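Margin note from the TA: students keep mixing up input and output lines. Inputs are the sequences; the output is the structure of the whole complex. Example:
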Amino acid sequence: MTRISGAWSSHDTVVLSVKMAAHLSYGRVNLNILREAARKELREFLDKCAGSKAIVWDEYLTGPFGLIAQYSLLKEHEVEKMFTLKAGRLPAADVKNIIFFVRPRLELMDIIAENVIGEDRQRSQRDFHILFVPRRSLLCEQRLEEQGVLGSFINIEEYILDLIPYDGDLLSMESESAFRECYLENDQTSLYHTAKGLMTLQALYGTIPQIFGKGECARHVANMMLRMKREFAGSQNQILPVFDSLLLLDRNVDLLTPLATQLTYEGLIDEVYSITNEVILEPRRTPRSQPEVNSYIEDCIAQQDPLIKILRLVCMQSVCNNGLKQKVLDYYKREILQTYGYEHILTLSNLEKAGLLKPQTSTRNNYPTIRKTLKLWMEDINEQNPNDISYVYSGYAPLSVRLAQLLVRPGWRSIEEVLKMLPGPHFEERQQLPSGLHKKRQQGENRTTLVFFLGGVTYAEIAALRFLSQMEDGGTEYVIATTKLINGTCWIKSLMDKLEAPPF
Amino acid sequence: MAAPAKGTSRTAQNDVASIKKKGPGALATAYLVIYNVVMTAGWLVIAVGLVRAYLSKGSYHGLYYSIERPLKFFQTGALLEVQNEDSVLLFVVAWTVTEIIRYSFYTFSLLNHLPYLIKWARYTLFIVLYPMGVTGELLTIYAALPYVQKTGLYSVTLPNKKIELYEMGWNLREGLRDCLIAAAPYGGPIALLKESQRRERSASARPLLEIYSAAGVPMASFPWKSGVVVHIGWTVSDDLLCIQEDGTVLIYDMFGNFRRHFSMGNEVLQNQVIEAKVFHSAYGTGVAIVTGAFRFTLATNIDDLKLRRLPEVPGLQVAPSCWAVLTQDRQTKVVLASGKDLYVLDNTACTPVTPPGIDPQVSSYFQMAVSFSYKYLALFTDTGHVWMGTSNLKEKLSEFDTKVRSPPKQMVWCRRPKSQQPSVVLMWDRLLLVAGKCKESIKYPSQCKESQKADEYLREIKEQNLLPEAVKQCVEAAGFEHEPETQKILLRVREYKQMTVQVLIDRLVFRRLYPLAIEICRYLKIPEFQGVSRVLKHWACFKVQQKEEPDDVIACAINQKLGDTAGISYSEIAARAYECGRTELAIKLLEFEPRSGEQVPLLLKMKRSQLALSKAIESGDTDLVYTVVTYLKNEMNRGDFFMTLRNQPVALSLYRQFCKHQEQNTLKDLFNQDDDHQELGNFYVRASYGEGSVEARMAALQNAVDEFNKAKNEFSARATEEQMKLLRWQRRFQEEFDKPYLDCSLHETVHSLLQDGKHKQAEQLYKDFRIPDKRFWWLKISALAEKEDWEELEKFSKSKKSPIGYLPFVEVCVKHQNKYEAKKYVTKVTLEQKVKAHLAVGDLEQAVEAAIERRSESELNLVLSRCTPTTDRALLDKINRARAGALKK
């Protein structure tokens, strides 16, 4: 966020944004089309509010918007001032229009109402507008009505910004809480936005003929997409499909990767690197025995290492062993509560709900089977002539990426057994194309697959998919989309419940 | 090759010959004979008519009119208005004689009895008659030229045959005197409201509101029962706006059906509307009024009503002499004249303006006119001049002296087809004047009296809209044209004009010409959901209003016709049905709606909330689910509401989310209802953190313990009990040592106690909470080192065998910069950790020794990595030798 506010104030970062726009078109799929469409819509909205403007930002949105439009674009459309949405009165600004750029959240509506009411007392001649991102909300409009300010707005519109292009092959919805909402709170709002975003994408890049998926959320998104397509039956998309297939993957199919890896050139942290190596991933050493891991974790707690590191280690052990022995689990939990505070009891409860922590219920542990079948830990990697994704992380191949790889060759049918061990259903759907839009593939032309990670994707997985794209005999190029770019730390953080007591 | 070709051609010739010999069949002959006889007779009638008329009048003037009707009948296509009677008579006489001879010639030759006289006449008289006819026709054309040039009439070149499609059907009982008149844009309908009677409030003399099509066909007529109307005008979608004195605006459709009404503000009630105008802009149709207090109020789009009261004009004591509305830079402004001053009013300010190059002698403006595109403005001054310029008053186009000092009745802009020059038409009682950029003007002195004035007036109305009218006619003509090519060209003509396809189809739809509209959409290949679908939707909306038909018949008929055409919104049609009070029909129609999300708002309106909830869930749109849930919550009693949610898990979890942020207590009720003790426990834990006193916190935590126990979550129950125990300890310490301990973790509490030297209390906690030895040792040594209590640390190290070994002792000492103390513990460190210990205190030589002793390559490497360029050469050699040795093994 700080980066973006920088982009809007200093000259050199503006150049950076321009460069960014250019690199979006280098990839196999020109994602700049998406960005341009978003920019056009923004300009059109700004033009609707004639005269000078001030934008009041929901701070959360400044980051995503920075990737779409730099300050100069706003300035061209008479945006003279920008404020952060805060309770109380609006700062003084000599402008004709006040535009609120907000997510549809009730608590934000209350703040807006306060702002507007405060303004009315000054008897000014200003026009108010709201731009909801990414979607309008009846609920929010109702709240504004209850507060008696709905009538004060000249324009109430939505700005459909679901998938934001980050890189030539990378799209993100930047929805921080998507994983938490889906797996903890059973709130599927972000999945609805995902389905909508994919529809927008298809409107620009053509209908995607094949949809594959693994997981409950994937199933839900695919169902919504098919329903939305039916709802718009008749208005056929006449664009030649750019994507050959879509792969929807639930984050909870592969919980280990975000816990374990953070080790690409994009975000390598020495300290974490050494830990992950020692405990699990060092390919040249056999994984240590359980008691050894237990005592390592114990030591880390005793030395009061950061809580998130502890949680990652404990969850990792649980995930790899299909749960922890009840005694061990309770011991860890007690240690954590005593060391870091009892308020973390809710966080622990969340981790259990999300399946990251669990007591061993059966003696059978599927993980070794999965590991072996999918070759998640490669013992010997050829450093001179790397030919496997495990090369990217000293021998560890992310499960999610293996699924993508095996889907192309030889197909999921070969790993039915393993798929059944992983949570949620797996499926395949086909979308009818209008005749004449069936792609005639040139000899040696690569297929393009869009891999959508529901609940977040790590840099590790991105790097692995890029490695696959670049493999000469791969035959498939990947474009990656996600609800949020995550790393283990921010991911675990999103699952934590912060309880702070008022001082007594 | 040549021979067969010859053969074929010969046979072909033979065939033709045989047909020729045979001649036409009997039936054909009979038909031809009858046709020719009729034609001969017809022309004879004309001839006789001419002779009789001539005989009776003794003059050839007016002869044409006596034979006009039969002539038109027998010479189809003769639609030209007569300009020059003499020349017409010339060729009519010539034609008549020629045709009589021609048709009788045909008749007799068909019957194979051709009298010589006829034959002679046919081949001789043409020498006189043809030149005569040609001369007449040429003269007529010549005579018509100035007229055509003047008016620009027929200058729109239409490639179709001239067929009269309809006649002007004007049938006005009284003239247009004292009428409020409004003509819709683009040649739409025309509305009339008698003005003279509108002030009389007696029921017997209620004025009549009449609506005609542009061709004068009456479409609606009804007595006006509402208040006094100041102004009438049409919207872009052909609705009629009647603006009343009290500021109420009533909206009727073009068939005279009342639609709705709105008010131009309360302020009007006191001061009344003295003048109003209807205007069109990119936003839609707007209304501007000026009140008795001389204040202006604007509504730029009546479909999205936002009233704007314009600022006051300083010192304005009387009504402005004239004013106009214009749209510039997406802003709507008012230009007004008061005396010799002109002002522009926008939302924020009143700005005085002076038109460039205006005669300084001007002391008043009589009339003001803005062009259709808002580009130009014309002002008629008391000096009799017309000033023409751009509407931003920055540029003058021209000025024209009309030599008339009286105010014109009306002044409008018009632009002839294909002409680059806009011009202004002015009208007085007896004079119509067109003034353009050039010095010349065209005058039409009206000779006739009142009745003809009406005609003139209407014509003038049409003149404003001449071009769109022509376009419209093209389209309508296309509907009657059967040749696809011609049709295409006609529709192309239309495409060049400002009327978009959308507008065209709308207009047809407003006129309920659904089949024609559909045909045009199909022909132009307009994308379905912009074209056919829209028309069908309008049709369906009209259909649901037909009260006499039963619900299922209508629903069925609509579904049959609409099917699943793209872009059809069944919910919109259902909404219309509901508006007409047909709830059942609406529900039936909603079932055809494929988008479940679309069904929800209407279902809620119709109070089918349960159905609305399941449809909302089906759509996947969580916002919609929330909306229905909040609706249900307000509508139902709590018990029913909870039961409903219980059956819809998706809605329930969303509602929980809502409560978590908005209504904590409802959340508790929800968990209670579901006997979800685990969540209740969590709820109390969360709640405990909101409490301001330790007692209240404890009480909440006790609730949590109870719930965790009920949930059989032993761990959470015990942990929470522990938490309460800690709170009690902390409270005690806080009171005893006057230091804040509350809300520290157990670890922090012990650490803090140790730092303060409260070893006994720390020990108590250690035992009471069964802190594992390892962790307690770590805790203690780091607290002591932090406090730099080295003595106590050493004592502690000797108290018993360390469960964590002695390397941590070394490390904490080094961490707090005391290598001296650290070295004390190095000897106690186990062999495996020796190297690390030596390195920690910076003793490289000892580290090397230890590593060599252990013969560990990795440890040697570790030591090597700590070496710097300043490291002793001999030491380095030693390491390298040892490494070589280790490698050999």
